[in-house]
Amino acid sequence: MKVICEDFSVCVDCIMAIANGETPEDAETAAAVRHGIENAGGEIVCGSGESYFSWRACDCCGSRLGGDRLDCTLLEGDNVKV
After folding, report:
1. What pairs with residue 67 in β-bridges?
2. Domain ranges, ordered by start, for the chain
3. End-to-end CA distance of the chain
4. Pairwise CA distance, residues 76 & 5, whole Å
5. Quick count: other Cβ atoms within 10 Å of Cβ 63?
6. Could you tell me which of 17, 23, 25, 47 has the fewest CB atoms within 10 Å of its CB?
7. The predicted structure's pLDDT at residue 79
8. What contacts 31, CB < 8 A, 6 or more positions away?
């Protein structure tokens, strides 16, 4: 698979959806997470690094809330459907 982006930073809500298929209970946030994953432009692969605090917007759902982020890699391929 071809790497599209190695600097893909995702929030906790997105990482839970990517890894476990668990979306937030809040309908608006859940919709943003699903939309972000389905329209990422490739397959999101979770990194093995540690999470870190950031104010940077989530590259998946676009959330601008400060919180934990985890670096992921975006690979060419099918999107994950949540």
Report:
1. 54
2. 3-75
3. 21
4. 9
5. 18
6. 25
7. 58
8. none
> Which helix (H) or strand (E) covers residue 3, if one does?
strand 3-11
User: How many CA atoms does the CB half-sphere of 7 hold within 13 Å?
Assistant: 2
Is the Cβ–Cβ distance between 58 and 11 less than 8 Å? yes
Please classify residue 21 by burial: count the beta carbons closer than 10 Å to its beta carbon, then call 0-12 exposed, 13-18 middle and 19+ buried. Answer: exposed
Please provide the DSSP assignment of 16-72 as one string.
HHHHH-PPPSSHHHHHHHHHHHHTSSSEEEE-SS--EEE-SPPTTT-----EEEEEE
User: What is the DSSP secondary structure assignment for residue 81, as one 8-state letter?
Assistant: P
Tens-digit pLDDT string for the chain (82 aa):
789 888 899 999 999 999 999 999 999 999 999 999 999 988 999 877 899 999 999 999 999 999 999 999 999 876 555 4
